[in-house]
Amino acid sequence: MSSEYAKQLGAKLRAIRTQQGLSLHGVEEKSQGRWKAVVVGSYERGDRAVTVQRLAELADFYGVPVQELLPGTTPGGAAEPPPKLVLDLERLAHVPQEKAGPLQRYAATIQSQRGDYNGKVLSIRQDDLRTLAVIYDQSPSVLTEQLISWGVLDADARRAVAHEEL
Question: Residue 34 contacts by C-beta under 8 Å, 6 or more apart in sequence?
């Protein structure tokens, strides 16, 4: 295993551990000594090679698929995150009600839940887009194109949807 790959793998291991709110000693305690803090730390720093078997066991311990621990295949090891889906609420207000009514109500509900009333833009999640696609009886990619044509979504949203459909 190359040194760079080991470091990338270690970064993924560290990210999963910290997402779960565990310190290295927390891993040792939670695993009842099965995973020693010093060993997991050396995996995370890329100082120590981890076997496929041990990686599979560690993935099982963290409750994640093994592929979540493997570095990406893109240069630099980390894929560029997909762009955020940001609705332009000012432009949405100018789309005819018969077209944008469901989207306007959905956006208003999200704003209410978040207490976010800036009125200019609203970030939505991929799940929100999928829900809206069901409401509009379209695929997420077709709905994305429609929202781009209305000027409500930036053209970069295509990349976010394409990333999701891979």
Answer: 61
**Per-residue tokens: 117:** 């009333």
Q: How many domains are there within the chain?
A: 2
Separation CA 84–CA 14 (nearest Å):
24
DSSP class of residue 46 equals T
Residue 72's CB is within 10 A of a number of other CB atoms, namely 12
Angle between the 140-150 and 97-114 helix axes, to the nearest 10 degrees?
A: 100
Residues 12 and 47 in one domain: yes
- The answer on 89 and 65 residing in a single domain is no
Kindly state the percentage of the chain with pLDDT values over 90.
49
Residue 6, token pair as written in the block: 């080991």
The residue segments making up the domain with residue 21 are 1-69
Residues 36 and 96 in one domain: no
Rounded Cα gap, residues 70 and 5, in angstroms? 9
For 72-130, what is each residue's pLDDT tens digit? 744 344 445 566 789 999 999 999 999 999 999 999 999 888 887 777 898 898 889 99
CATH number at 41 reads 1.10.260.40
